[in-house]
Design a protein that fits this description.
The chain has helices spanning 10-17, 24-49, 54-64, 68-75, 79-91, 103-121, 129-149. The protein has 162 residues and is mainly alpha-helical. Helix 2 crosses helix 6. The relative contact order is 0.12.
Length: 162
Amino acid sequence: MRCRRCGRRALGAATAALPWPDEPVAGLWHGATALRELRGDGHVAALLTAGVTGLDALVLRSARDLDRGTLQAARGWTDEEWRTAADGLRSRGLIDGDERVTASGSSLLDDVETVTDHLAAQPWHDLDAPAAADLIGFLTPLARAAATLLPATNPIGLPAGP
């Protein structure tokens, strides 16, 4: 499958280019993986554009709303690396002395998520309106079920379930 809206998003484009499984559940998994990788590629682009590294993003999220222990352990950052990133964010006015996000830091995170969401929506434009509505109707219950099964604090920052 060729992804017309993959742009230069390497992981998403590579995943979308793999052979599509014939088995329905495997096909669903493959499609979800391609969309997740496209979103991830867009998120990295949004972070880079905002001058934020992956570690910076985790420190900011822990300063705002997610558990540091979970985030730090999931990605294997040392305490020293975490402190160095926090010092850099503090010098930019994005977190305060208590490692709480500032208004500027929160605004930066919101802007990154807005750009990420915009980029993640692009592949959906390849579908006509009825196909998109059908797919959303099919995926919504699955997404809700996954949101209730995944922990609220997780390395990919999924919001808590409904």
